[in-house]
Structures are given as structure tokens and as C-alpha cells.
């Protein structure tokens, strides 16, 4: 009985040591991966990295991580002209193949999301004088104030002057706001009452972690801004 008890205690201690070593190793790997991602230029600041699954050491030996989570609330995205904040970014990377020393990493599949505020979105979109092609400019080079207009819609205004509602959709990494129909004072000022103005588009060229906008619902209006959905295959995360 005593021999069995000693063996059981020994195995428990050994198991605890192995689990502890595994957790230490994964913590070191997560911190190193976050540093490498930031230095790679694919994200403008060091993110939080979590490597899911147990044991980690088995995954490390196979050089393939089943599930890696990345998050950050201080990233930026842009169109090559200027950068704006991307809030609440989070991504799930599956099938992450790494080299010795984390010099390179490829991702079989990546998905994620983040939010651009309406104030920042208005900075990325063309100014108001491009809303109606060939018509009298509305407000010169002023920009629209955008807000949530309901499912799939945004509202636009110039100061206290409502312009109308538009819909948001995306193709590739290009986000387009269109479907505005001017009426009332806004339409009279533009000389285009009841007409459908030209679409406003922006193409993002600096999305985080090598991801792209998802083919479906890549840009969706929500109450606190425009929610971006990311989806990519065969992503070169490092190297």
C-alpha cells in the first residue's frame, strides 16, 4: 500500500512539473510571437497572443500550432493616404506552421474582426464635394458626419443638415457607401433633389496580420461604428 501511495505521489509531482514546464514554455512562445509580429510590420503595435491547446510542447515539436488567438485595441488601418484606429481587433489563426526560432510562420486559415468608428470612417471616405458628380458641391471640401442608420445602413449629415441614408458593402478590400438619395434642403443645394448621388469608396491597404476583408459581410454597420470581418487563407504571418 505504501509503495502504491509513493508511486502515485511521484507521478502526481512529475505530472505537475510537466504541466508547469509546458505552461512556462507556452508563455515564452506567446511573448516571442507577439514581438515578432510587431517587428514584422504586419501590425503597428505588439498584440496579445494566446496559443490554445494542451500540451503546447507537443505542438512545438511538430512545428504546427492548432489555434492561435491575436487581439489588440490599438491598431490602425488605412488607405495609403492616412491611418485610422481599428478598435477591438481579434483574430483566430488555424494551422499555424512555424520554423525553428519563429523566423517564419504561415497560416492555413485566419478569421477576425474589428471596428472603425464612424468619425474615422468619414475621414477615409472622399469629401462631400465628390458625392454628386457634375453637380454643385455640397459644403465644398467638408466631410460627412456618419452615424448608424439601422441594419446595413449609415446616415450622413453636414453639420446639422441631414443628407440621407446610404448602404454599406464591400468587395475585396474596398468599402463602398452608396444608395444615398438627396431630398429637401440637401438636394436643393446640390441641384439634385431626388437623385442618387455617386458612391463613396475607400480601399484599405494595411490590414493587420496579413488578413483581408471577408468576401461576405466584410463591412457591416453597427451602433458604435463599421464592423470589419476578416478572412484569409495561406497567410504569411512571419518571414
Mean pLDDT: 79
- Give me the secondary-structure category: alpha+beta
Helical content stands at 25-40%
What general outline do the C-alpha atoms trace? elongated
pLDDT < 50 stretches? 3-17, 133-140, 190-194
* Percentage of residues in strands: 35-45%
Count of individual beta strands = 12
N-to-C terminal Cα separation, in Å?
57 Å
Overview of the structural elements:
The chain has 239 residues and is α+β, with helices and mostly antiparallel strands. Helix content is 25%, strand content 39%. Strands 1, 2, 3, 4, 5, 11 and 12 form a seven-stranded antiparallel β-sheet that branches. A five-stranded antiparallel β-sheet has the order 6-7-8-9-10. The relative contact order is 0.15.
Core attributes:
239 residues; alpha+beta; 7-stranded antiparallel β-sheet; 5-stranded antiparallel β-sheet; 4 helices; 12 strands; 25% helix; elongated; disordered N terminus
